[in-house]
Amino acid sequence: MAGIYLLARMVSIFDTTLRDGAQSEGVSFSPEDKIEILRRLDDFGIDFVEGGWPSANPKDDEFFRRAREVDLRHAKLVAFGSTRHSGTTAANDPNLSSLIDCGTEWVCIFGKSWDLHALKALNVTLEENLEMVRDSVAHLVAHGKRVIFDAEHFFDGYAHNREYAMEVLRTAAKAGADWLCLCDTNGGTMPGTMSRVVADVVNSFDVPIGVHNHNDSEVGVANSLVAVEAGALMVQGTINGMGERCGNANLCSIIPNLTLKMGQKTGTVDMSRLTSLSRFVSEMVNQVPDASLPFVGRSAFAHKAGIHISAMNRDPQTYEHLDPTLVGNQRRYLISEQAGTASVMVKLAEMGIELERERGRAILEQIKILESEGFQFEGADASFELIVRRYMGEHIPQFDLGGFRIIVESSGEALISEASVKVTDAEGVLEHTAADGDGPVNALDRALRKALESFYPEIRGVRLVDFKVRVIDGKEGTAAKVRVLIRSTDSQHTWTTVGVSTDIIEASLMALVDSLEYVLMRTRGPMDQRW
User: Fold this and answer.
1) Which spans in 245-340 are helix H?
2) Burial of 145 (0-12, 13-18, 19+ CB in 10 A)
3) What tens digit of pLDDT does each residue of 212-232 get?
4) Distance between CA 162 and CA 164 in Å, rounded?
5) Spacing of C-alpha 55 from chain mean position
6) Which of 161, 170, 404, 424 is 20 to 30 A removed from 207 (C-alpha atoms)?
7) Which CATH class is domain 399-529?
8) What Å distances lie between residue 350 and 344, 354, 365, 440, 456, CA to CA?
9) Looking at the domain covering 2-284, what would its CATH class be?
10) How does pLDDT run across 67-81, given as a tens digit for each residue?
11) Rounded distance, CA 130 to CA 148, Å?
């Protein structure tokens, strides 16, 4: 029955990034952030977007006021709240009044479905808890709201007292709920149990069933998929799996698995925008995108081993489970000491460089020597391309750093860093300038840019977006080599460069110089090297 029911209906996607995702440690959305993410989720084709809890805080109140003016083409904006408090009625509950007045057609309220929570967390009788559910849902329905009832801690409640957990669902359904959503609030349910319980619920109710899984046991995505197989028709989750503790089930994995692997329909979702949506949300919360995320991560389709790349060059199916362009991502070949000549040749072709195999082998040997000294090029494509272009005689540096000086002094309360540099452009013109900064590397970066901007105005648009320092061999103590990786952007392109030295300033300077050389090569070099 569940299988037939599944094939007959479409799976709805419910995004709670703006509410449950906002409970991630270190994440705080402004109303402007929420509006921008809402627009992107709508453009992507998400069915339901949970915006927050009206009256919970001023920012959510402002968001719902501003959201009234957003013309949503597909998504249904959902307001979140709880069942009424004990000792009152739904008509007198401020929380429910806020849900009625916030301007959304859809609301999602949670209620206790675990008898332990009703008795100990709410300190009410089991009968009163049922009345709170009935009264709240009926009151919202009477005021024209469409209700999604989230049965909090449902799977724990089902394991402890199945009959009571099911009675909570029956109460919400009889009161007029449009959806019943089963929540694995503690994230401890295993996939086998998830499948069995969801099938039981689906076969017991005419109201469509959804699931909301947390990821505390690292099975949030798996649980969501088996729930759909068992008949669930709504999946709740967040972009990139954001959320409290270990996060929610990750929609960036759930959606492509449902659509591309399981053949299920997920509304009007534009799968080709999935990777850009993931990275947009990461940027909005000021987090570096997780490179290892399936489907959307920068490393999801990155290949390093030479034997893999050789096979991939013959047929991508050998080491890829799907075409990365389907989810808006791209294939990457990494260059390292593990690479073979075939890997280098493929990488060169990717860069638009035609080179005979012997010269490719010579480049590989040079890369291996550099990596034995601590360099790492698998994440520094820009530095790798500069090495190749220099080897081929195609790249002539646009500037020469004649020298630099860094002064660090204490003002009593803080350290002040100042850097001065001497730079000569390609015509031999000297520029000598200085700049302050937050630490010596930042001061050096500012001084170098300041000097070069007089020659090359396009550098003004370049900014550093990531700076990583790695001690290569900690056994050497403070004399150990460090590797510095710098990621830069001009708002349209992003590139990474690397530097290695026993001196962190020198390593940083290597990466900084490479970064600026790279952008100048791409803007002022031969036409076949430009963006």
Assistant:
1) 251-256, 274-284, 306-314
2) buried
3) 999 999 999 999 999 999 999
4) 6
5) 28
6) 161
7) alpha beta
8) 10, 10, 19, 36, 28
9) alpha beta
10) 999 999 999 999 999
11) 16
